[in-house]
From TrEMBL, chains A, B:
Gene3D superfamilies the UniProt entry points to: Nucleoside Triphosphate Pyrophosphohydrolase, Winged helix-like DNA-binding domain superfamily/Winged helix DNA-binding domain
Signal peptide start-end: none
InterPro entries in UniProt: NUDIX_hydrolase-like_dom_sf (IPR015797), NUDIX_hydrolase_dom (IPR000086), WH-like_DNA-bd_sf (IPR036388), WH_DNA-bd_sf (IPR036390), WHD_NrtR (IPR054105)
Stretches assigned to the Nudix hydrolase domain: 11-161
Official protein name in the record: Nudix hydrolase domain-containing protein
Domain of life of the organism encoding this protein: Bacteria
SUPFAM superfamilies recorded: Nudix, Winged helix' DNA-binding domain
Entry-linked CDD domains: NUDIX_NadM_like
Amino acid sequence: MQNGSGHFLPAVSIDNVIFGFHQNELTVLLLQAKSNQRWMLPGGFIGKEEDLDAAAARILTARTSLTNVFLQQFHVFGSAKRNRKEHLGEVLRTLGIELTAESWFMQRFITIGYYALVNYEQVIPQPDETSLTCCWQDVRKLPLMLFDHEHIIAKALQVLRLQLNYQPIGYTLLPKEFPLKSLQTIYETILGRKLDRSNFNRKLLSYGILEKKEKHYTGAAHKAPFLYSFREDMYFKALENGLEKDF
Amino acid sequence: MQNGSGHFLPAVSIDNVIFGFHQNELTVLLLQAKSNQRWMLPGGFIGKEEDLDAAAARILTARTSLTNVFLQQFHVFGSAKRNRKEHLGEVLRTLGIELTAESWFMQRFITIGYYALVNYEQVIPQPDETSLTCCWQDVRKLPLMLFDHEHIIAKALQVLRLQLNYQPIGYTLLPKEFPLKSLQTIYETILGRKLDRSNFNRKLLSYGILEKKEKHYTGAAHKAPFLYSFREDMYFKALENGLEKDF
DNA sequence: CCAAAAGTGTTAGGGGTACACCCATGT
DNA sequence: ACATGGGTGTACCCCTAACACTTTTGG
């Protein structure tokens, strides 16, 4: 990935917005650049003979060690000026790349945004060579970002909110078994507003994609909630066909 | 556009799915290739310093003579094999381009799909140098297409169906004044099913984006319907914020 | 016992669906 | 007059929002 001129498609990159869920907060996996301390999305380039989706999956796996996750293209960012900011110079200098106009990295880049929903606990964040660190950040308290990456995250969230109406969300964000309240909090965080517990449970259960398990023993001072799990057959069918709803 | 190596971004193209509406049918503007008689979407490339959306608009204007139309990015098609079919050889031969492996056109291309909704009557179809003709084709009776262009149209339609729930559709497809029945037929065509006339009228009028005009004098053997027009202020507000609806 | 959160139930209102009925117009 | 299609109204059903009440658990 350091010297892409030979192996990768020029002028196109991929940026992954990887969402996780931890302590009732929606988080994003970010890298901090060595060069200027700015934070950036895990991104990369597309092999000359590599399918687009495969490239996005490869990039995600490199930073998380996860495979087979929910990963979806959501928008292309194609402003001519998006990566021509003052940042680029700093980044390249640290990488030891000459700042000539012909540099492969100096060209104008279009980036294709993918978003992923992953299980926070299963991720082992791995920085790449250009980064100081790789870690989760609260979506609502983002640090100083590189280029237009803050805008990319905002767009990912916006699309995710719409998808919530059509796609079963949560399977890839939660452990195998979970209380319904966790799922509700995910929905509330994504939507940015409170939902009624009773109505939420009724609605989600009515889809028939959840299965009730045994009791939950928690240390909290309240009634122990039931655990649920996704019925995989129904879940994947719903992923394909959506959760009904149309004009 | 003939020899893009200097002026355009490599490896990325744009394809526009331009929808029009005529005689109660949804149509798409297509070009027929000189080389192999296959039909293709109006497409093109992105200038080295050109915004993505601007490139799509430029390509659309070149084929329709229209400006300021509803034009939206909807998907990226990035399979490594998508334009490597037997077609490519024929196309390049007719263009008089050598079939060397280094040819700018021989590289693998990612294409960004945009869809547009335009007023059929206002379009003056203009073929480009590589095409025999440029004309409208019924979406449900597509001719033999180049590459994966049939798939691109199918995806555009699928996205359009979803957008119908969130965006006010019709303003750019219809003349200034129109009977509600025309709008209903558009919805029915896009959705592929019949809608109840009474309910459709109530729903659309409830959005408050339509304005009732005078009577309609037609030669048909039935009651002359009212004409309506879009209230531009409300229309553009709805384009921004959607037509409500959430979880 | 009390607080907190899960589980369960009830009610009112809105919107969608499926009709029925009347009205205007051209043949 | 009659067929065609527009305009209007209505009854029903389901979904949702809002909220009340009970149950379980840890402190």
